[in-house]
Design brief:
The chain folds into 2 domains: about 170 residues, 3-Layer(aba) Sandwich (Rossmann fold); about 160 residues, Dehydroquinate synthase-like, alpha domain (Up-down Bundle). It is about 40% helix and about 25% strand. The chain has 12 helices and 12 strands. The chain has a 7-stranded mixed beta sheet with strand order 1-2-9-6-5-3-4, sandwiched between helices. The N and C termini lie far apart (about 45 Å).
């Protein structure tokens, strides 16, 4: 069992990581509370029974799978169901799923009765290495017939995160590769050692723990995304724009993989990045121009007036924040 204890200013979070953990949740979950499970149809088919047989009291809300569930209407439906089930402030939400489920479950936990407790069981590689930790949660928003990613949300932490790498054996290949793109980001930006490991053979459980440890260290120092934490957004300025532009036909991981290529200026590093993508099987091909993304990037949360604060890669394992005029940034990466 690998564990992390993160002491945020607002909350303490425990992470438990072990193969087969999903079958031993009863050793960690509270017996005297009710759990309101939020999951999606795909995950429910695979793992819901394994979870519910370890709970004495629970209620359930099933989402449709995919990014299209991250909207106000779905949040209202969940809250209506929670009120019908008489979920109390001392009860728990249990998030069982990938990034979309985690975003919605965390957001609902943050606003329901001004905040109730929740725990997370991430079921995708993306969620296990990144999105389940750090407290960011929220939904997308549609304006002027455009869908803007993660425009409404907050920072709200789970009590505990239960990471079981064995779950990933049932993950579709495309979802696995989406998560691997985020793993590559952690190596590229924060750990040359991890980047080198990915070029050879590696132990997935250890890689997941390295990524979580790196994110814990960064987010513990900057819980609310005011400065240091923004370095985690490498590749995401272009990536989020691509997701919206593609109407979410691109996965988050593939969009970030493409974004990292566009945002990397050093030819040697870009070449190594392409080679690693090829080795891992990550597809970073998509037909677009930077003009296609401009409207989406101007709504990026890192915008400050006409400037944008962006992570800039200096070397493998070294990244810094810089502020640039948006026009200059777009010219640099075009």
């Amino acid at each position: 069992m690998k564990t992390l204890k993160i002491k945020y200013l607002s909350h303490k979070v425990e992470v438990f990581l072990e193969n087969g953990l999903i079958s031993r949740l009863g050793d960690y979950l509270k017996e005297d509370v009710r759990y309101f499970i939020i999951t999606d149809l795909n995950v429910a088919h695979l793992y819901l029974d394994s979870v519910t047989k370890q709970l004495k009291k629970y209620d359930l809300y099933l989402l449709s799978s995919g990014e299209n569930s991250k909207n106000y209407a779905e949040v209202e439906n969940i809250i209506n169901r929670m009120l019908e089930a008489n979920i109390q402030k001392y009860d728990f939400i249990l998030s069982l799923g990938g990034g979309v489920v985690g975003d919605i479950a965390g957001f609902v936990a943050a606003i329901y009765k001004r905040g109730i407790r929740f725990v997370s069981i991430p079921t995708t590689l993306m969620a296990q290495v990144d999105s389940s930790l750090g407290g960011k949660c929220g939904i997308d928003f549609t304006a002027n017939h455009q869908n803007y990613k993660n425009q409404i949300g907050t920072v709200y932490h789970p009590e505990a995160i239960f990471v079981d790498p064995m779950i990933l054996k049932t993950l579709p290949k495309a979802e696995y590769l989406s998560g691997m793109a985020e793993v590559v980001k952690y190596g590229l930006c924060f750990s040359k050692k991890l980047f080198e490991q990915l070029s050879g053979t590696f132990d997935l459980e250890e890689v997941i723990f390295q990524c979580l440890s790196l994110k814990a260290k960064i987010t513990e120092k900057d819980e609310f995304d005011e400065n240091l934490r923004m370095i985690l957004n490498y590749g995401h300025t272009v990536g989020h724009g691509l997701e919206s532009f593609s109407q979410f036909s691109l996965s988050h991981g593939q969009a970030v993989a493409i974004g990292m290529l566009w945002e990397t200026r050093q030819l040697e590093i870009k070449t190594r990045l392409r080679e690693l993508y090829q080795k891992l099987g990550i597809n970073a091909a998509f037909d677009f121009s930077m003009k296609d993304l401009t409207d989406f990037i101007t709504q990026d949360k890192k915008m400050e007036s006409k400037n944008i604060r962006i992570p800039v890669l200096k070397a493998i394992g070294l990244i810094e924040m810089e502020t640039k005029p948006l026009d200059a940034f777009l010219r640099e990466i075009s």
